[in-house]
Description:
Layout: E1 3-5, E2 10-12, H1 15-30, E3 41-42, E4 50-51, E5 60-63, E6 68-72, E7 74-76, E8 83-86, E9 97-102, E10 107-112, E11 117-122, E12 129-130, E13 134-137
Antiparallel strand pairs: 1-2, 3-5, 4-7, 5-6, 6-13, 7-12, 8-11, 9-10, 10-11
Amino acid sequence: MAFTLLSNGSTFGTQRTLINAIITDYNSVVDPQIAPDTAWTAVTFTNSWVNSGGGLQEVQYRKDSAGWVNVRGHCKDGTVNAAMFALPTGYRPAAILQFGIDNNLALGRIQAGTDGTFLLATGGSNVRVSLNGIRFFAG
């Protein structure tokens, strides 16, 4: 019994070759539409914020294949309630978001604006700010 793959009209003699052809055909249609994870990219700090150093992860961001933006790393020494950095278009939230973070071993709050700006909204200390685990859907 011969099998025909409808998308390109090819004929296959066995179920196994048909299944392999379906998988190949599926991948050729679906995979190009799924963007791969972007590389981790270092932020450009403003208002005296810098990476914490001392072996701690530098502040970086990336977007995964599902459209989720991930932020990681530690920073310090900047102005509280002023922009730390801004993410580029395509990496910004659709609404203002707030995240609870480790702020020098105390609870702090990071705010991410629709313009991509991140700021330390509360916590008071700029000694060490952890941005690990911040994740949101790019809007």
